[in-house]
Design goal:
- This protein has 176 residues and is mostly beta strands.
- It contains 1 helix and 8 strands.
- It has a domain of 113 residues.
- The protein has an 8-stranded antiparallel barrel.
- The longest helix is centred in the N-terminal third of the chain and has 19 residues.
- The N and C termini lie far apart (62 Å).
Length: 176
Amino acid sequence: MMKMLTLRAPSWFFRFTAFFSVAAALLFSVPQASAALITTTAGSATTTITTAVFHSDVLISIEAVQSGYLSNIGAFTAHFSYTAVATPATITIVGSGTLVTANGNRLYLQASILELGLDYPRTLNGALTITGGTGRFSGATGTLLIKGLDEESLTDTIQIQGAIITPGSLLGGLLK
């Protein structure tokens, strides 16, 4: 009969191997943990057209300034450059702008607005798509929805509501 020889490693060896295996797995296989900060906001703004250049009966270049207040953001000013295409029942407005907070942080925006109506006041609804920013809003994305009435004057008040998404990290950057 043949005798089998069994080698046994000490129990500390298994514990040591298990500990370092888990430590190595955590160190080398955990992806960078990050999360986004979502800031909801609502408020209003007053928009004033400063320049309107009529290229034809239906094509208009518009420059406008804006000032207002948004919850979780505070007071702001903005400047927009638009192109408007008018028909008897609609005005389609597209363009870009920059919103600047009281402390200098900026949000870069793309605007898409539709005005409806045969005469003034015209209802307006649209979206401001956030394409980036500076300071607190660096790398920001999101959408701000707007609605209001376009009065015959060059100054209108709009309501704004939406969310700003900014990159962040878990545990205050400890896992970054």
